[in-house]
Amino acid sequence: MNAIVMMLLGLGAMFLGYVFYSKFIAEKIFKLDPNFKTPAHELEDGVDFVPTNKYVLWGHHFTSVAGAAPIIGPAIAVIWGWVPAFLWVVFGTIFFAGVHDAGAIWASNRNKAKSIGNLTGDVVGKRSQTLFMIVIFLVLLMVNAVFATAISGLLIKFSSSVVPVWGAIFVALIIGQIIFRKWMGLGAVSVLGVIALYLLIWVGPSVPLELPETVMGVSDNAQWVLILFGYAAIASLLPVWMLLQPRDYINGLQLFIGLILLYGATLLLGPEISAPAFNTNTPEGTPSMLPLLFVTIACGAISGFHGLVASGTTSKQLDKETDARFVGYFGAIGEGSLSLATIIAATAGFATLADWEAVYSSFGQGGVAAFVEGGANIISQGIGLEADIAETLLTVMAVLFAGTTMDTGLRLQRYIFQEWGGLYNIRWMQKALPATLLAVGSCLLLAFGAGGADGSGGLLIWPLFGTTNQLLAGLTLLVITVMLVRLGRPMYYTLLPLIFLLIMTVFALIVQLKGFYDKGDWFLLTLDLVVLVAAIWIALEASASLSKIKKEQKAENTKG
């Protein structure tokens, strides 16, 4: 099949989902109120609580949740064939991710911008809150440690991306000052920012930069990991308007331009999909598609990490409650479109089936490299852009998104330590600097303690990221569902995705449990058991909470 057909079907369905389904959810289910005073106004402090233009906030939310995951997941999952990956990305975006992201913003916004973990204690119960905080911490630990490793690897492999990646930070700092001090309109500064960013991408291949292979026995990969965490620590302490917002906003614009180039080249080139629709000849050792498809593709369909961003930073910057539809649901659409582009690049970017099979020689292959290679082939052949420029553009896109996710992830991890400090009355932990040091320290402990001198320890527990992350999405949907039930509103639009996620997550955990046992990997087997118990516990808590609320409402109706 021609890739143009896949592109038009996918984008068309997501467009209709935003126009009709998101409007229904926003007006009839969440009942977003433009007159509700948001925490950004009520608690404005100029650092974390800052009322923000919805387009700028969309850029922050979208690029924070996008990261490398919506590229890595789909580019691995196409090993089962492009049809299953395509269907889960499209329908998952419309009926799962959009509702989840917008709902998390709404739930947090209605509760003083509390994080979804903190909110669980009020809405569901203290037992669920304790469980939720542990799961959140594990997910953030995985994301930060692994993304640092992933970015390091890309900066080493594609040295032409170093200048544009780090140059983008200085561009963002300048843009932040211009927007915050209102020296220039948003439209003009957007154009200048994009021009500056693409000039850096054009310059990148001419000035490739590499770190020394070793410095005092520290490898180049470990050097980048340390630099990245040093940067992320500083970024997490700065006011959101200074770096986080403008960096995310300009990266969001850059992504859309990159997607326009990739989709435009697809239209002009019309490449045939070389990968099979359903792969019946998967490499030896490839696990069953069901249920692992639904945890391999998380971001791009639905992801628990989105709930952390939505309730951790986004809700603190919401100018009007009605902006939650655009920021949350359309943010999910943006990520879905990136995952769709990834599927096209990883299936139609190779000339023949043999070329594709050479890349997908075992499960776990593909990933960012397949996206960059396949996407660069389509862009260079479709619109005539030089191959090295196209490759740099797509690499920078992946690295910048992974970087913005890491920025936000470390800030969220800092919030977790501060919330623990408040929960257990540890005053020093409630302060930003000590909490940040604890967040960085825990990530570095995993990176170097488990991974050795190269700092790749996050990869050790990465196999459990998909299941843990989807468990987190289920928890977020549980909080939203309970809130809806208490308000007497329809719950099935969140309850059905919740049930589906719990079934698939438990199924996947059991499958992985057997795999870890067969390999004798007792560390991951133990972690898997912990997450499995958590998933079952959540299911029981969900059932008990909803049953209790229903009984209370029935009793009140009987009295009335």
From TrEMBL:
Q: Where is the signal peptide?
A: none
The regions listed as transmembrane in this protein's record are 6-26, 62-80, 86-109, 130-156, 162-180, 185-204, 224-244, 251-270, 290-314, 326-351, 393-412, 432-453, 459-485, 492-510, 522-540
Principal place of residence: membrane
Q: Which domain of life is it from?
A: Bacteria
Q: Which InterPro entries does the entry link to? A: CstA (IPR051605), CstA_N (IPR003706)
Q: Which organism is it from?
A: Idiomarina piscisalsi
Indicate what this protein is called per its UniProt record: Carbon starvation protein A
Q: According to its record, how does it sit in the membrane?
A: Multi-pass membrane protein
Location of the CstA N-terminal domain: 2-347, 365-508
One annotated GO biological process: cellular response to starvation
